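My current task is to audit a protein record that another person submitted. My question to you is simply how this chain folds and whether the tokens agree. This is what I was given:
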Amino acid sequence: MAEQLEPMPTDWRRALAIVAHPDDLEYGCASAVARWTAEGREVAYLIVTRGEAGIDTLEPAKAGPLREQEQRASASVVGVSEVEFLDHADGVIEYGTALRRDLAAAIRRHRPELLITLNFADTWGGVHWNTPDHRAVGRAAVDAAGDAGNRWIFPEAGGEPWDGVRWVAVAGDQHPTHAVDVADTLEHGVRSLLEHRSYIEALTDEDPETYCRSFLGTIAQGAAESFGGRPAVTFRLYAR
């Protein structure tokens, strides 16, 4: 991250974040959401699955409702009250017209200017393989931003066309272009991630609070060298 990052645009009022699983937004992005909502902007979450396949020790029928509950509590910490879940199956989301239709319908409902999604490249930083769910949802979200504005694409999905998405911001991208100063909201991000306690306790033997503070703090401080020394959340920003 050698090049200096630009600040994210601020001339918008509504954003919609589309990700595959509960917790996807909390691994870094939620600190930026906390700043935006504190500034009076509207942010809504659309989660494509309920994360039911995410906890090895808990059967999906029990894990799904638990993770939905944790996601709603997590969103509340950063000022997000509108959290919508789709019912695509966790772990086996398929990129295609069915997914694009669902996401285009959501974009028409929420009418965002800023669309947020998660890294949909093959890898995280060129090192760790990304999941099929992340790749499918991120790619479909970008495509759905265009679909939503065309009344002749997915007319059966309902809603008036919305061609008002001005940017797509991709969190966790290996080559970010923009960033949000989270010096004052990183603590909100930590507390938001901590709401996913059941998932975190299944993921690591480390103390959950220590784990969350270390993970998010390392990412934010790593971005600081390219953002005037300020802890930050980074995005790759695409203009439409």
Observations:
- The chain has seven helices and ten strands.
- The chain has a mean pLDDT of 96.
- The two ends are 24 Å apart (CA to CA).
